[in-house]
């Protein structure tokens, strides 16, 4: 836990004590686990509105759960999916399922 906290208050996130409390209150498992690889994985597949370190940090400050989003089915090859699925089945950790909510919209007509 000490290493996780040390990383969170250092670069690249440099979270203040208040920001850290907010993040941990909303998504404790990902912030107190191993946040560095979670950050790297989420940032790697973040969609355009949140791509890049600055935009991603801005999102994390208001939506801490974004740190656990390590999948983006929109970046995968649709031809490898089962014909009945419109996604890869990683919905819990997928950007596609929550990005509309982050933007104040809904996914496929359903609030997520």
Describe this structure in words.
This protein is mainly alpha-helical and 112 residues long. The chain contains 6 helices and no strands. The chain has helices at 2-9, 17-26, 28-32, 35-45, 53-62, 95-102. The longest helix is centred in the middle third of the chain and has 11 residues, at 35-45. The chain is globular. The mean pLDDT is 87.
Spell out the key features of this protein.
single chain, 112 residues, mainly alpha, globular
Structure in a nutshell:
With 112 residues, this protein is an all-alpha fold. The protein has six helices and no strands.
Determine the number of helices (DSSP H or I, runs of at least 4 residues): 6
Element pattern in H and E: HHHHHH
How much of the sequence lies in strands comes to under 5%
| Outline | globular
Radius of gyration: 15 Å
Low-confidence region ranges: none
Helical percentage: 40-55%
Structural class: mainly alpha
Largest sheet: none
Average pLDDT taken over every residue: 87
Distance between the termini: 30 Å
Tally of extended strands?
0
What is the element layout, followed by pairings?
Blueprint: H1 2-9, H2 17-26, H3 28-32, H4 35-45, H5 53-62, H6 95-102
């Amino acid at each position: 836990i000490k290493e996780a906290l040390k990383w969170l208050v250092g670069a690249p996130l440099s979270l203040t004590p208040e920001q850290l409390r907010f993040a941990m209150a909303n998504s404790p498992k990902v912030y107190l686990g191993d946040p560095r690889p979670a950050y790297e994985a989420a940032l790697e597949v973040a969609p355009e509105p949140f791509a890049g370190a600055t935009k991603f940090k801005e999102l994390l400050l208001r939506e801490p759960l974004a740190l656990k989003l390590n999948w983006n089915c929109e970046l995968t090859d649709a031809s490898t999916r089962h014909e009945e699925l419109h996604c890869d089945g990683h919905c819990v950790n997928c950007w596609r399922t929550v990005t509309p909510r982050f933007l104040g919209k809904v996914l496929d007509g359903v609030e997520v």
